[in-house]
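$ ./design --mode recover --in tokens.txt
reading tokens...
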């Protein structure tokens, strides 16, 4: 048998087996890459959680001046713990409402993690020193000088009433002189004028002469 006869072409079954083996190998390779990606995602998740934890930190409120019971309730509502200490005499704290916060160990606005402990310095309400009442400063009263005496005004004198108006008397007009009627002497002039004279000589002068 020759070498050409021993290297016969593969049958269809062998070709199908090789193809199927290639597909299975490719799937395994892809599965391995996907597992690595999932592992990388899982490794990155703790960093994301840590960042979320930082962003979710709690801001400590201002507590100075509050009673211890109210301050404790406020911190516990935020998920924080409280440690209170008597700053005056070191007394044991029994009734929290009888104590007031004098100072806080963590400043107001400080960011802390949930579950952190905030230390408070408190003093008992009966130990508070009352604020002394200031003594009023005496005020010097300056007396005003007496007002000058103003003499009373003299009583008003009533003026006499004005006299009634009397119209002036009319001016005296002497009566016109009464002329005596002319004495008629019986002489008639030519123009009909009665000559007042009795003497005929010169009578009717200017009247055309004596008619009778």
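writing sequence...
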């Amino acid at each position: 048998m020759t070498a050409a006869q021993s290297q016969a072409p593969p049958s269809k079954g062998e070709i199908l087996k090789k193809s199927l083996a290639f597909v299975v190998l490719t799937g395994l390779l892809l599965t391995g890459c996907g597992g690595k990606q999932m592992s990388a995602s899982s490794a990155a998740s703790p960093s994301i959680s840590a960042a979320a934890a930082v962003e979710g930190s709690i801001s400590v409120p201002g507590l100075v001046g509050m009673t211890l019971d109210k301050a404790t309730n406020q911190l516990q509502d935020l998920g924080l713990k409280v440690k209170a200490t008597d700053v005056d005499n070191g007394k044991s704290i029994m009734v929290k409402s009888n104590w007031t916060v004098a100072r806080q160990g963590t400043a107001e606005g400080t960011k802390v993690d949930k579950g952190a402990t905030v230390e408070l310095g408190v003093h008992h309400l009966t130990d508070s020193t009352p604020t002394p009442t200031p003594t009023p400063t005496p005020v010097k009263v300056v007396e005003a000088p007496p007002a000058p005496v103003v003499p009373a005004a003299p009583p008003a004198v009533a003026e006499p009433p004005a006299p009634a108006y009397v119209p002036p008397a009319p001016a005296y007009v002497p009566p016109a002189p009464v002329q005596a009627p002319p004495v008629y002497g019986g002489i008639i002039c030519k123009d009909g004028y009665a000559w007042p004279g009795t003497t005929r000589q010169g009578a009717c002068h200017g009247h055309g002469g004596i008619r009778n």
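exit 0
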